[in-house]
Amino acid sequence: MSHTRSFPSCAAPRCALVVAIVLTLAACGTRKPAPPPSADRLAAMATALAVQEQRLAVLASDTSDDSPIVTRVVFNRGMYKPGIERLRVVRRQNTVNNVAAQVALNIALIALTRGAAVQGFSKDELAGDEMPELANDPVSANPASQDVANGLGRMATRFYARRAIEAVAVAKTDGSTPEEIADASQIPKDLGTALNPTGWQLVYENIASGDDLYRLKFGAQLGRTFKGPVVCGYVSEPLGWAAWQVDGWQHLREERAKAVTRCTTDLGAYIAANW
């Protein structure tokens, strides 16, 4: 008596899927490992690694103001409208105008809602006015747009170079392949977060007094944070408007340099501790 072996039935699509999986697994099981690099290739990789290690040593130790930047920090306006890229001045009249607008709005809201609708604001939140006299002067440029961003980029480059040196040393002793050692020697080209401004203005000191004092105010913030917002800020001592303009705005240039140093140091310390 002849016997025929029966197989469980299955839908055609399901069977096709099973066959495809079996064939894929079979192909993976028979795939030959990639051949090791040739002697010439290994020699070339060793030479490239030696050059990269020398480069890392230079990057890790160069603390000059014009040291190379490998890891870039990008400036982004964030929530601000165009205009934050240049210094603006907030005068008393800006507050007066804003108060008038708020009063008109509150009156309209009271008429609509039959209740009080008081909306407060800070003078630091006002956009202020452009300063045509500084339109083409580098001192007017928002420090976050280049100076602080470049300073952080240099600090991040040094930090990542030191980390890469340590990673290469470990990779050479833990059985890593030449390719893996080469990967460990690389430095990120981007910090992975933008630098956002939080202000760049000359702001009047007191609306009630008759003085003409203004403070320079600057701030910036890293977009990527781990322990809450990471913000740096600088506020100068008050100075009369005429005094700010003496010697081609010399005091403004000095205070701007202080703001750059303060923010680069504060944000750089955070990067070193958390990245």
Structural account:
This protein is an alpha/beta fold and 275 residues long. The chain has six helices and seven strands, in the order ααββαβααββββα. Strands 1, 2, 3, 4, 5, 6 and 7 form a seven-stranded mixed β-sheet that branches. The N terminus is likely disordered.
List the helices and strands and how they pair.
Layout: H1 12-30, H2 39-61, E1 72-75, E2 88-90, H3 92-113, E3 129-130, H4 147-171, H5 178-184, E4 190-204, E5 213-222, E6 230-235, E7 239-240, H6 241-274
Parallel strand pairs: 1-4, 2-4
Antiparallel strand pairs: 2-3, 4-5, 5-6, 5-7
Helix pairs in contact: 2-4, 2-5, 4-5, 4-6
Task: Provide a short characterization of the protein structure.
The chain has 275 residues and is of the alpha/beta class. It has six helices and seven strands, in the order H-H-E-E-H-E-H-H-E-E-E-E-H.
